[in-house]
Structure formats: structure tokens, C-alpha cells
């Protein structure tokens, strides 16, 4: 569908507020670095009594403050292409970002009553559910209806993470798996397409058993954690999901990707998701319980963090009318995220491992902000609105 956009109305809005990817990609990247530097200060023994810093805050901010916000920005932008209805912009977009920012500041400062950021964050996801879900329902784009339950799930989990202290670790795991499931859906659509188009390859026909199996296994794994089923069930579903993703990526021409950073960065991050599946299976089965934290960070740092950096870099160029060519040092940024994941998986919990992982993350996302801040704040170079 071709969206109908009132050019005069669109151009009256500052470029930063014309599409959801602009504020959420920029804000998510910046906040991820701020949150990790605060976390590193806490790990290094700094006393931060004015801040609500701890394991729960760290996991919450990287999952809700960073990952889920970027997901909203991506889905809000893709919605225009999928449905033909213009994405939220202007006042609607400012409202979304305002709620997101209020939640970040409220959770950070200990003097703010906890119910305030909880209300702001739940409102953020409910507003996103309304704005995105209404577009899907209006156009009967049932294939993309997943955005509605996903946003509602984020809203419920955001409240539960703070209001149910005894269940914080399990809620965090559910959010991690929810974001991972979303990137498996999106990655399964775009990575083979981008790869085939960039290298002029014939896209391979998708295997229904692999595609449906991926969706079913991801949902069942999320439900098994939500229902607190035996961890052996989690392990069996994790290894099933890992095998399915292995079949997937081997069909995406993995040997032909290394000449293009915009492509190999996507594949490399997806491989780290697969590594997370197998490490999680080892941990949850009881074979190697100590691998649980490394497994979860393979999902979080390598999979989610890496794929977000790769996707935001590409989407920001494409949706501002620019050539899809990685800026000079962005390959270093992509490699830094992979190194951040490997340090967190195989070097931590040594203090130097934590530090190396955070430094590499900050390097990767700093390069993104250096190159992409002008891209995200300026109008499209082709003169089109958006």
C-alpha cells in the first residue's frame, strides 16, 4: 500500500517528530549507554543513594527502557509500510516519547514514588497498543496483528516487574523472551530479504515447518516461563528453537555475506541468539546451571543489542532517503557489539569482563550516535516527508 501523506502538514512538523524511528532509535541508543555507565559505576562500588540502581533496575532499563522502546519505534515506522496509514507523528509521537522519558527518570531517581513511573510506562505501552493496533485492525492486516498482544504484554509485564518483587527475575526473563520472539519474527522477514537483494541472490522459499515451528516454539517457551513449568520443559523448547533457527540461517546464504557490513552484522547477531538458545538449554536442563546468566546475555547483548544496532543503522538510512551504505566506522561498531556479547558470555562475572562488555557496548552505540544524530534530526535528503 502507498500511504497518503499531506506534504504541507508533514513538513510543518520538525523532522525529529515525523516518524517514530527518529526519537526512539536516538533516545534508545543514548539511554542504553547512560544506563550501562550508571550500572558500571554501581558495580565499581560508587555510592549512588539518590538513584534506584540495582539488578532489577538494570534489567528493567535495558529491556523496557532500551529494547522495548526501539521495538515501538521500529513497529511504529513499519506500520506505515504495512498498512498504508501514516505512522504516529507530531503530537501523538511526542506523547509517546514523553511517557517513555517520564518512566526512565521516575525509575532512576529514588525520591520519585514508584507508582508514578509505573503508570507512565504502562500508559506508554497502552498508547502504543492503541495507535499501532488500530492501524492493523482498520486495514485487516492480520499477519501483523502480533503488535497488539505484544504491546499489551509489555504493559502488563512492566507493571508486574516492580509490583511483584518476588517474581522480578521471572518477569525479566519473560520480557527478554518476548523481545527475542519479536526479533525472530522481524529478523525472519528482513534478513533473508536484505541478503538476497544485496547480493542479487534468488531468495530461498521459506519452509513452513521452520517458520511456524519458530513462532510456536517461541510462544510456548514464553508461556512455559509464565506458568513456571519445570525447567526441563524450558530446556526442550529452547533447544527446539535453537535448532529451528540454525536451519533458518543456513538457508540465508551465510557464506556470501562478509563483503557487506549492513548484512553480516544482522547475521552475526542472529547467530548469537542461536548460541543463547543452546546455552539456555544446557542451563535449564541442569547439565550446566552456571550458564544461565551467559545464555540470557547472549540473547540480550548479542541478539537484541546487536540486531537493534544493525537494524537501526539500516532503517535510519533507508527511511531518510539515503544510500544503504554503512558509514566508515560502523563496521567497528557492529564488531564492538559482538565483542560486548562475547565478553559478557565468556569473561564475566570477572569484574574486568563486565567492564569490557560495557565499554564495547558504549563504543558501538557512541559511533551510532556520532554518525546518525544528523540523520535522525534532519529532513529526508530526497525531499519526501517522513
Automatic annotation (TrEMBL):
Coiled coil: none
InterPro entries (alphabetical): NnrS (IPR010266)
Keywords: Membrane, Transmembrane, Transmembrane helix
Membrane-crossing segments per the record: 24-42, 62-81, 93-112, 118-137, 144-164, 170-195, 207-226, 232-250, 262-284, 296-317, 329-347, 353-372
One Pfam family this sequence matches: NnrS
Name of this chain's protein: NnrS family protein
Organism expressing this protein natively: Microbulbifer variabilis
